[in-house]
Each structure stands twice: as C-alpha cells, then as structure tokens.
Specification:
Rossmann fold; 17% strand; six-stranded parallel sheet; seven-stranded mixed sheet; homodimer; alpha/beta; 37% helix
C-alpha cells in the first residue's frame, strides 16, 4: 500500500490539498466550517495551507448564512464545509436565502468514499438530491485527479452573474488520494447586455405620459444604480420602488432614498395602484409573498404592462445608463434624504421611537442586517437620513438568517460596525451563531425585539380569515411561556448583553454597544 | 365569492379540518408544530378540533426529532407541521435519523396555493425534491376534495412496516377550500413472513459447529426478540450482538443482556473476527460507519457468510420463533445481567465512574436517550444490570437528536422519567428544543458531557492519517473559546440546572433531578 492511499499527507499533494489550494488561488479566502469525519482530510489540508480563514460554526445554518453575509459585503464567494447529506440539510434554509439574494457561494459537502456509498452506511443519503433545490450548480467529485478542476468549476459557477450557489460534493477518497495541484478557474462570463428592444420599450413607456414605476432589485438598487434611476425619474416623472427584500442597499445621507414594496398583501397592492407600466431593473415581477383567499397573486393592477429592462443576470447598470440616455436624462442631482432624526429623549418604547433612535445613532459605515419583521416595518423610512450605511435583508423569507448573516458580514468587513436587528422568534432558529461572534471577536451588535410571539403569524391568521383564534392557535403563536432570557442565552454563548424595557435604557445600551468593540446583545422587551 | 373560498370556516368543513379530523381518527394524536403563514388554516383547524395535542417547537429539527422519539415509545406516528421547503429543510437531518430508526412519522408541510406556485414567490422551492431523500412516501395535495384521503394514505404509509417517514405537502388552497370530511385509513399491510429457506439456511449454519453470530436490529433487538434469540444461542452456542445504534432496546435487570457492534472501525472488525456465519435478524449487514484509508467497508471477516433470516420489513419475532423451533431450542432461561452496580462513593469524575453512577441510579421505567458519543462508550455495559429501562440511540448518525428525541419520548410517556445523555457539541445543533421541555413541563433530565470539543473528530483525524494536527485543525475541533455555559443556556430557555465538576456533585445533582418532576439540565464538566 502506498503512503497516499493510507491517508498520510505526501508529495504530490492529495486531492483535499489540491482543492484547498485551488480555492485560495481562486480568491476564496474564508471557509465557514462544521466538519465531520468524512471531511478530516479537507480539515487537515486547511491546516497545512495558508490563505484560508476557517470560521467554526456550531450549526450548519450558521455557516451557510454567514457565507451569504460575507458574499453580500465582499462581492465574492466564501466557502462552507458541511458534513454529508444531513449537514447540508441543516444548511439548506439559509442556502435558500442566499440563492434568493443571489449570493455567490461555494459549498464543500463531505461524502463517503466512492466505493463505500454502495453499502448504505448510516449517514448515506442522496446528497445531490438535497443540494439541487437550493443550488444552481451541483457536482460530485469522481476522483482525486479531477477534484481541483471541480473546485475551479464551482468557483466559476458561483461567480457567474448574478451570483450563484455552487455545491461540490467531496467523496472522502477524492480528498485522500493523490491530487494534481492547483487548477485555474475558467473565465467567468461577463454579465449579458440587456436588449436594445427592452431599452426602447422602457423609453416609450416613460414618454407615454402614463404613470410608470421603476422597480429596482439586485445591483440596480445599490447606490450607483439608484443614482441613474433617479436621473431617469427626475426627467420623466417615473417613481422608484425597491423590492420588498433586497440583498444589499447602500443608503443614508447623500444617497438616493427609495421605498420598498410593502410586505402586507393589501399594502403591496395599494403601492402599485394606478401604474400603467412597471419597468423591472434587476427586480422580479411583484407577486404576493403568500397566496391569500380572495387576493390576487400578481400585485400590479389589471392592464398594467410589465417591461423587463434588465434581468438580475444582465448588466443592470449599463442598461440604466442606456435608458437614461434614451430619455435624455439630466445629470445626477443632490439627493434629498431629509434631516437626520434627533435622538428621541423621551416617550414610550415602540416601533417609532426605536426607529428614530436607530436613525439618529446608526454610525457611518455601519452594516445593518434586518430580520426585524413586524417590529421593523417603519425602520427603513426612519433611517433614510442616517449616516451612510448598508442595509441587508431577508430575500428568501426563510427566518433564522440574521445572526448568521451579521456574522458573515462582520468577517467580510472587520472595520465596519455590524448591527443585527433581530426578531425574537426568527433569531431562535440559529441562535448558536452567537458563539461564533464571540469566538471570532466580531464587531456585531444584535438587537433582539422581544415581543415573545410569532407576531407576524397573528396578522396572517387574521388575513386568511381565522378571525377568532382559540387558545390552541394563540398558543402556537406565543413564545411567552416560558419567556426566553436572551441576555442569558448570549452569556451562555460567551458574549455580553443587556436587557432594556424603556426608551432611555435602549438608547443608552445601543450607544454603549456602538462605542464598544466586539459582540454584544441588547434584548428589547416590547 | 362563497364563504368557503374567502377562507372563513364554514360547513362543510374545509380541507384543513378534514385533514386534521382524518389524522385524529387515524390515531395521530400529537402534532409537533413550527407553523408559518401558509399553514394558518391548518392551525385554525387544529384549534377547532379536539384530540390533537399541539407541541410548539422553536426550530423544525426539534419537531422532527421529537416526532421520532414519540414514535419509538408510542409505536405509532405523530405528525409534524412544517413551513414550506425551508421549514422542511430544517427538519431533514432528524428525519434522516427517524428514517434510519424506522420510525413512523407523518409530516405535514405547508405550500403555496396551487395557483400561486407559478409566480416563484420568495419562499417557493422544490418541496418534493427536498422531501424525497428522507421520506419513503411523498405526495403533494392537489385539491381540498382529496386532501383527507391523502392524509389517510400518509398514515397508511407511515404505519407500513418497518415504520416509514411519510410527507404530505399541503398547498394552502387545499386547506382553505371545502373538504370532504374524514377519510378512513386504508388497511396497513401485515409484516411479511420470512422465507422458509432463510430459516432453514440459518438452522444449517447453527448446526454446522462453526462460529455463528446472531446480529439483531429493529424489533428483534427489543425484549421479546432478544429472549427468543437467547434461547437459540443457549442451544447452539451462537452469540448475540446488536447493531451499533438501535432505535429502542428494553433492557436492564431481568432482560437478556446484549452488546453492540463497536463504532470505532478497528474494534468493529475485531468484534466480528472468527465468525463463519452472521445471521441478520432485523439488522443490516455490518459496514463501517465511515470509510477509512486502508480499512475495508465490510466488517465481517473474509469467507464469512451472511444469512438474512428476516429483514427489518419482515416479521422478525415470528422468524426467530421458527428458527428456535428448527434448532429445537429450550425454554427461556432467567437472564443473567449481573449485579446492579453500587453508587461509586469516591473517585475521579470520568467515563467509568459516571457509567457506574448511571448504572446504580437509573430508575425503573426510565427512558434513556443516548447521544453520548465518545463520553458514553462504556455506558451501555455499565448499565446492563440497572433497573429495567429503555435505551434509544442515534441510528442515522446525524448529531443533534438527543434533546428533541427526549422531548418526544417524554410526550409519549408522561409517566416515565426520561434521561438524555447528551454530548455537548451534538446538543448545540438543536439546543432550542430545551424550551419545549420547559413549556410542556416534560419530565426530562438532560445530562451534558461538557468536554468542550468535537472529541469524536479528534480520534477520526488520527484515523484518517492526520497524526499531527496544527492549530487551525485543532481549533476547528475545539469548543472551549469561549466555553459554553450550558446551565446559562438552560435558564435562558426557562429550565433549571446545575453545573458539576466532581463525582459526588454529579451523583447529588442526578439524584436531585430524578427526585424532582419536570425538566432539568446537569452540565458535567469533563
């Protein structure tokens, strides 16, 4: 038996090391890991190779959500390391969110050795089957010879516009057998250019004199796209509206303000009322987040025409520039975000005063992760004149993203303060990710809105016509028996925190947390 | 618009209520729930219908793992209520464990209304694709008319031997449109009878004079099967061995003692050395839990013949009875489990003294959930003479089962003390399930082995040949920076607990917890 087949590291490097070196050479510099036995050669290779930061997570949803947050802020993929089918399964909900946010991401999923699969050992599952619903690209490595090229193809897939989830399944023998060294990443295709016909059609709609909405998503909703869209709007009288949830908006003082399509179905329908043309720029057609009895799926009014200027896959900025030219738009104007709110000195602790306090206190350069749900419905409007900052949302609607997302954003941007605005019910899905913040000394403030309920569902129960819920239904939407002690949980995971029940205690705690470097949790009892 | 289509509850009952009443009439009396918007009509129906206990979980892995624990102890399915694809995804790892334990289980997974799916709303996913790898039966409801019959078919599938995971996907309009009332559950097929040829072949092997192993799993390893197997063994000189992990073994004083196939690969190979025949009774062929360089996948020695007396699907008890008759086995003898261990009075706090303390203190009728992993390797042997009790293990190898499993076992058996022996790294995957224990006042003692490491992986890293791990590899297997405060976490979730660092403190705490009704957590610092 050769040294290579009995698993010791030898020259030439094994498949695992070839893969790790390929990832590093391809610009993948962080691995959010939750490894198991089948990944031990990959772990050993991570150990030997410089250039890959390994961030340990206690649960796979923490790893995939962190990779999403990293990708949104770094504009490039991180990797994850997951343990066979069940480990991947635990990461799928946040992969779903990453897919909807169009975040580039490379999953490495360990698998039994190729020859071992046939014996249906206890952890054997259909990993490709599990990966496919949440991945744009899935491949199972067949040999150590090819695994570096597989990894390079995964990077290419992840980086292909608009950003994709790529999942490479790594059988243990493709990791431990001799590899071939670094494989180069094949060229990543440029974003496609939007059709001239689409630009012309959008320009005609804007010239029609009828009400037009520019619906922005993906890259078009970030700073640069919004500035061009604003030039078009000023020239033509069109209005701008962002999607309900957006992967990343750079906003605050000096940026073009934008509202979002409201989440509640009736408000969403009302927001689109009267428009005759909706021009989609990186956005998808406005549809109900859910179906409701007696409500339409499509939110646009009847007779309204939808024009796709640029899909999320296409170059939205370039398309907006052509459209600006076609309508003869003027230069960018100084955006009016209004006046930065005053710190509210007194009053009740409610959504408005909290929003105003956030508006006053968000520091320049902050990254806001927003999984506030019901509590935060006003926060977006109340922070439009804050110091310049970046806002990340829950695109896929699968709750349990905030703590992981803020973890990954902080890894990507160590020099920026990360503030996670966290609904309590949602935060409990991936609460373990707090530990990674403590372990990595990440500069994240988690603010938990502790209403001790699935408040969003109380509204939804009424929306579907169940107007008089009984004790069993109310019980299933309540988290108050027993009440969860969030500060206790935070301390259990190794970070400090404070519980607040008044407005002044909240603003004190937030100011303290913003002054102090490192992870901190504020439980806001509502 | 009729009242039914705008969602108010009317006569005739809607699809959701038809389904809930079908489940209750079919003997499904518990629903472990983590609902969302698309499940609101089902929640409203649960509210209206008597006979279904609703147990709220903070995370879907808690719901599916609890349904597994319930099924093992109640020998019938519970239901779960999960929210679309991502909610199902969060429950998949413990569905994998349930599948491997052959637990009957009915998942109800909410889905967008049938007409809404085409719009690819944010939470839209391929739910069937996600369900299939972990389910024996998957169906998407097509109409409210048929949804009760779909539910009845799901119960039939779940109850089909050896016990299966059935997943019914419930589009919102099949819940809110008018239903048809209760559907009867079609007849559940009897367990198939094992082949006469298999019995004859096993009898020949037992008469050969060569070493024979009776390898027991599924029903054959419970009390009754073990008693018959013991009669065969006494007559023929064969030895009994259970699988490495078993869904349920009723054991302790007065039952036939049995050892298990060891988990570590070399010990597993050694345990099978010398056998010429292995007779499988409800067990699957012994294979390595993982592949290791230079080690075989099949653990039986070369030349050893494997005979399947009865598969897990077949009637193992009846097959054992026929085999006993064929070898002319004598009557059952009083089993010798040895003497119940003394409570160790002094000594270090280590695996042996802990095992001895458990052996002395396990109360009669206790249900032990064992996710001890490395810490608990000796516990099985040291508790063979304890008071009669039931032992549940991690069949699928996907860690994060213990807290949910013990939750479900306690729901099934309110009169029995449940003791969850929990490795710390594993417990952190589904730690939220502690809250459900507090909410439901379940009589569960969780004993956490706090070694602050993925200790099992340290051994595995060496097993694959990485003998000198560096700081990055060691860091990825360590949970000590920061150390997790398990008692703090427990209190955060609303239950009491105690940290112990000495043997006497451990035995005191365990005795206290066994005397006190309700959930309690003991953190054992190792």
């Amino acid at each position: 038996m050769s040294e290579a087949t009995n698993g010791t590291a030898t020259a030439p490097m094994n498949g695992a090391e070839s893969l790790v070196r390929t990832l590093v050479a391809g610009g993948v510099e962080v691995c959010f890991t939750n490894p198991g036995t089948s990944e031990m050669h990959f772990v050993a290779a991570l150990d030997r190779v410089d250039g890959m930061r390994c961030v340990l997570c206690l649960f796979e949803g923490g790893a995939t959500g962190a990779a999403d947050g990293y990708a949104r802020m770094a504009d490039k993929p991180a990797s994850t390391l997951l343990h066979l089918g069940p480990g991947l399964a635990n990461g799928l909900a946040n992969l779903h969110n990453a897919r909807r946010a169009r975040s580039p991401l490379v999953n490495i999923v360990g698998e039994h050795a190729t020859y071992h699969r046939q014996y249906d050992a206890p952890l054997t599952t259909d990993i490709e089957g599990l990966a496919r619903p949440m991945s744009a690209w899935v491949r199972t490595g067949l040999s150590a010879d090819a695994i570096a090229a597989d990894g390079a193809a995964a990077i290419q897939a992840a980086r292909t516009a608009p950003g994709q989830v790529a999942t490479l399944i790594l059988p243990a023998d493709t990791a431990w057998n001799p590899g071939t060294g670094i494989a180069p990443v094949p060229p990543v295709p440029e974003r496609a250019r939007a059709d001239d016909a689409a630009v012309a059609e959008a320009a005609r709609a804007l010239a029609s004199g009828e009400p037009v909405l520019l619906h922005l998503g993906d890259r078009a909703v970030r700073g640069e796209g919004r500035t061009i869209a604003d030039r078009i709007a000023r020239k033509t009288g069109a209005r701008l509206l962002a999607m309900t949830a957006n992967a990343r908006i750079d906003r605050g003082a000096g940026t073009v303000p934008i509202e979002r399509l409201p989440y509640p179905i009736d408000q969403g329908i009302a927001a689109l009322k009267g428009y005759r043309h909706i021009i989609l720029v990186g956005a998808t057609e406005p549809v109900g987040f859910f179906a409701y009895p007696g409500r339409p799926s499509l939110l646009a009014p009847e007779g309204c025409r939808t024009i796709t200027l640029a899909t999320p896959e296409e170059d939205q900025i370039e398309a907006l520039e052509r459209l600006a030219e076609a309508v003869n738009a003027g230069p960018a104007a100084a955006p009016d975000t209004g006046r930065r709110p005053e710190l509210p000195g007194s009053g009740p602790l409610d959504q408005d005063t909290i929003g105003a306090a956030l508006g006053a206190l968000i520091p320049e350069g902050a990254v806001i992760c927003d999984e506030s749900l019901t509590t935060g419905r006003n926060f977006f409007a109340l922070t439009r004149a804050s110091a310049p900052h970046t806002w990340l949302q829950l695109n896929g609607g699968s709750i349990g993203l905030g703590i992981p997302l803020s973890t990954g954003a902080a890894v990507a941007c160590p020099e920026r303060k990360v503030i996670n605005l966290q609904a309590d019910g949602s935060g409990l899905y991936t609460v373990q990710a707090l530990w990674t913040q403590a372990r990595e000394r990440l500069d994240v403030v988690t603010v938990v809105w502790s209403n001790r309920a699935y408040a969003i569902l109380r509204g939804e129960l009424a929306n579907v016509g169940a107007l008089n819920p009984g004790p069993k239904a109310i019980g299933m939407l309540s988290l108050d028996d027993p009440a969860i002690d969030w500060v206790g949980l935070a301390r259990g995971f190794g970070l400090d925190g404070r519980r607040v029940e008044t407005l002044s205690a909240f603003t004190d705690a937030l100011q303290h947390a913003l002054r102090t470097r490192g992870p901190y949790l504020i439980e806001v009892v509502l």
